[in-house]
Amino acid sequence: MSYEVRRGVIVVTLVDRHGDAHVHILDHPGVSQEEALGVLAAKKSELSERCSKEREESTLSATARGSETQVGTMPPDKVRDIASRAAKAEGYDLEKFAAPKITFHPETQQWWLFFLGIHEPCPGNHFSVVVDDRTGKASVRGGC
User: Fold this and answer.
1) Please, what is the Cα angle at 121 between 118 and 14, to 5 degrees?
2) How far is CA 132 from the centre of its chain?
3) Which of 6, 8, 80, 95 has the most beta carbons within 10 angstroms of its beta carbon?
Protein backbone atom coordinates (compact mmCIF):
# COMPACT_ATOMS: atom_id res chain seq x y z
CA MET A 1 0.00 0.00 0.00
CA SER A 2 1.20 3.48 -0.78
CA TYR A 3 -0.48 6.84 -0.60
CA GLU A 4 0.24 10.43 -1.40
CA VAL A 5 -1.47 13.79 -1.56
CA ARG A 6 -1.83 15.15 -5.09
CA ARG A 7 -3.35 18.58 -5.52
CA GLY A 8 -5.04 18.27 -2.14
CA VAL A 9 -6.48 14.81 -2.88
CA ILE A 10 -5.38 11.65 -1.07
CA VAL A 11 -4.55 8.94 -3.62
CA VAL A 12 -4.13 5.38 -2.31
CA THR A 13 -2.54 2.58 -4.35
CA LEU A 14 -3.00 -1.06 -3.38
CA VAL A 15 -1.25 -3.93 -5.17
CA ASP A 16 -3.02 -7.28 -4.93
CA ARG A 17 -1.40 -10.72 -4.73
CA HIS A 18 -1.43 -10.96 -8.55
CA GLY A 19 0.57 -7.78 -8.95
CA ASP A 20 -2.39 -5.74 -10.16
CA ALA A 21 -2.42 -2.24 -8.72
CA HIS A 22 -5.65 -0.54 -7.76
CA VAL A 23 -5.68 3.24 -7.37
CA HIS A 24 -8.31 4.89 -5.19
CA ILE A 25 -9.16 8.42 -4.12
CA LEU A 26 -9.83 8.55 -0.38
CA ASP A 27 -12.97 10.44 0.52
CA HIS A 28 -12.85 11.44 4.20
CA PRO A 29 -15.99 13.42 5.09
CA GLY A 30 -16.01 14.75 8.64
CA VAL A 31 -12.34 13.89 9.16
CA SER A 32 -9.44 16.23 8.52
CA GLN A 33 -6.86 15.32 5.92
CA GLU A 34 -4.23 15.04 8.67
CA GLU A 35 -6.40 12.54 10.59
CA ALA A 36 -7.05 10.51 7.42
CA LEU A 37 -3.31 10.45 6.67
CA GLY A 38 -2.64 9.31 10.25
CA VAL A 39 -5.04 6.38 9.83
CA LEU A 40 -3.39 5.47 6.52
CA ALA A 41 0.08 5.59 8.11
CA ALA A 42 -1.05 3.24 10.88
CA LYS A 43 -2.66 0.85 8.38
CA LYS A 44 0.43 0.88 6.16
CA SER A 45 2.61 0.06 9.18
CA GLU A 46 0.27 -2.79 10.15
CA LEU A 47 0.31 -4.18 6.60
CA SER A 48 4.10 -3.88 6.37
CA GLU A 49 4.52 -5.84 9.59
CA ARG A 50 2.10 -8.52 8.39
CA CYS A 51 3.83 -8.78 4.98
CA SER A 52 7.28 -8.99 6.60
CA LYS A 53 6.08 -11.79 8.85
CA GLU A 54 4.51 -13.66 5.91
CA ARG A 55 7.67 -13.17 3.83
CA GLU A 56 9.79 -14.49 6.69
CA GLU A 57 7.53 -17.52 7.11
CA SER A 58 7.62 -18.14 3.36
CA THR A 59 11.43 -17.93 3.34
CA LEU A 60 11.67 -20.31 6.29
CA SER A 61 9.29 -22.70 4.54
CA ALA A 62 11.33 -22.57 1.31
CA THR A 63 14.55 -23.11 3.26
CA ALA A 64 13.03 -26.10 5.01
CA ARG A 65 12.19 -27.58 1.60
CA GLY A 66 15.73 -26.92 0.38
CA SER A 67 14.57 -24.35 -2.20
CA GLU A 68 16.37 -21.20 -3.14
CA THR A 69 14.75 -17.88 -3.91
CA GLN A 70 14.25 -17.72 -7.66
CA VAL A 71 14.97 -14.72 -9.85
CA GLY A 72 14.32 -14.19 -13.50
CA THR A 73 16.88 -14.92 -16.18
CA MET A 74 16.47 -11.53 -17.87
CA PRO A 75 18.14 -8.48 -16.33
CA PRO A 76 15.62 -5.91 -15.02
CA ASP A 77 16.90 -3.25 -17.47
CA LYS A 78 16.03 -5.50 -20.41
CA VAL A 79 12.61 -6.24 -18.91
CA ARG A 80 12.00 -2.48 -18.46
CA ASP A 81 12.98 -1.88 -22.09
CA ILE A 82 10.61 -4.61 -23.37
CA ALA A 83 7.76 -3.25 -21.22
CA SER A 84 8.37 0.33 -22.33
CA ARG A 85 8.33 -0.63 -26.01
CA ALA A 86 5.09 -2.61 -25.52
CA ALA A 87 3.44 0.30 -23.68
CA LYS A 88 4.46 2.79 -26.38
CA ALA A 89 3.12 0.42 -29.06
CA GLU A 90 -0.25 0.48 -27.21
CA GLY A 91 -0.25 4.29 -27.32
CA TYR A 92 0.89 5.13 -23.77
CA ASP A 93 2.92 8.33 -23.37
CA LEU A 94 5.48 7.25 -20.78
CA GLU A 95 6.32 10.87 -19.95
CA LYS A 96 2.96 10.94 -18.13
CA PHE A 97 3.86 8.00 -15.86
CA ALA A 98 6.34 7.48 -13.03
CA ALA A 99 9.15 4.97 -13.47
CA PRO A 100 7.53 1.55 -13.10
CA LYS A 101 7.64 -0.63 -10.04
CA ILE A 102 9.02 -3.98 -11.19
CA THR A 103 8.39 -7.33 -9.50
CA PHE A 104 9.35 -10.87 -10.50
CA HIS A 105 6.90 -13.70 -9.76
CA PRO A 106 8.85 -17.00 -9.78
CA GLU A 107 5.71 -19.16 -9.67
CA THR A 108 4.64 -17.89 -13.11
CA GLN A 109 8.10 -16.84 -14.40
CA GLN A 110 6.70 -13.38 -15.13
CA TRP A 111 7.86 -9.85 -14.52
CA TRP A 112 5.14 -7.36 -13.56
CA LEU A 113 5.70 -3.65 -14.13
CA PHE A 114 3.25 -1.14 -12.68
CA PHE A 115 3.10 2.35 -14.21
CA LEU A 116 1.30 5.04 -12.17
CA GLY A 117 0.24 8.32 -13.78
CA ILE A 118 1.97 11.38 -12.34
CA HIS A 119 -0.31 14.22 -13.43
CA GLU A 120 -3.92 13.20 -12.87
CA PRO A 121 -4.93 11.90 -9.42
CA CYS A 122 -7.81 9.82 -10.70
CA PRO A 123 -8.84 6.17 -10.82
CA GLY A 124 -7.69 4.40 -13.96
CA ASN A 125 -4.57 6.51 -14.45
CA HIS A 126 -2.28 3.50 -14.34
CA PHE A 127 -1.46 0.35 -16.27
CA SER A 128 0.63 -2.80 -15.94
CA VAL A 129 2.86 -4.69 -18.33
CA VAL A 130 3.55 -8.39 -17.83
CA VAL A 131 6.74 -9.75 -19.40
CA ASP A 132 7.27 -13.51 -19.65
CA ASP A 133 10.81 -14.26 -18.47
CA ARG A 134 11.09 -17.33 -20.73
CA THR A 135 9.90 -15.78 -24.00
CA GLY A 136 10.26 -12.01 -23.56
CA LYS A 137 6.65 -11.54 -24.73
CA ALA A 138 4.88 -8.59 -23.16
CA SER A 139 1.20 -7.91 -22.57
CA VAL A 140 -0.19 -4.53 -21.55
CA ARG A 141 -3.08 -4.38 -19.08
CA GLY A 142 -4.87 -1.05 -18.90
CA GLY A 143 -5.98 0.62 -15.70
CA CYS A 144 -9.59 0.45 -14.65
Assistant:
1) 90
2) 17
3) 80
